Amino acid sequence: MLGELITHSLVLVLGYAYPAFECFKCVEKNRVDIQQLRFWCQYWIVVGLVRVIESVGDIFISWIPMYSEVKLALFIYLWYPKSKGTTYIYGAVLKPFVSEHEGDIERSVLQLKDRAWDLVLFYWQNCTDLGQEKFFNLLDFLATGRMLTTPQSSNSKHKDDDQQCAGAPAGPLPPPPATVKSGFFRRHK
């Protein structure tokens, strides 16, 4: 338990904090060294990719013994001045793969963005419709003192029976006023 805490702390310090500080120093120099800036950009690209893979595959790889230690060793390998593993991994693995599939990746990202926007609009529309309906129900309740019931259910039948037993006037309740569903944000295709 304590070993895990120490390892996770070292990963945070040596995998994220120290490289972020080195990158900050590189950016804030009076004369920026392009090669060093390029190296740190490549480092953060590789670390971002590792983080994405880790998020997706964490269920399958986190149980491996010494997983955190291997991750710590990978981060140190990536930025250590003598190995500069970032340059190798970026140049030999990542750059050729992304260059070859750049069009497909771009198309997939655009499709995912469109689907996500459609999903956001769908849920926004449903939430506004539901919110509008509940708001009008609340206004009607405040004005008349009773709730609107849209669907006739067995619960409303029991409520009617309870009202009749309590001395309420017999007979069916008048139908609720029709509500017009109109969302604030509608996407027309």
From TrEMBL:
<comment type="similarity">
    <text>Belongs to the DP1 family.</text>
</comment>
<feature type="region of interest" description="Disordered">
    <location>
        <begin position="150"/>
        <end position="189"/>
    </location>
</feature>
<dbReference type="GO" id="GO:0016020">
    <property type="term" value="C:membrane"/>
</dbReference>
<protein>
    <recommendedName>
        <fullName>HVA22-like protein</fullName>
    </recommendedName>
</protein>
<dbReference type="Pfam" id="PF03134">
    <property type="entry name" value="TB2_DP1_HVA22"/>
</dbReference>
<dbReference type="InterPro" id="IPR004345">
    <property type="entry name" value="TB2_DP1_HVA22"/>
</dbReference>
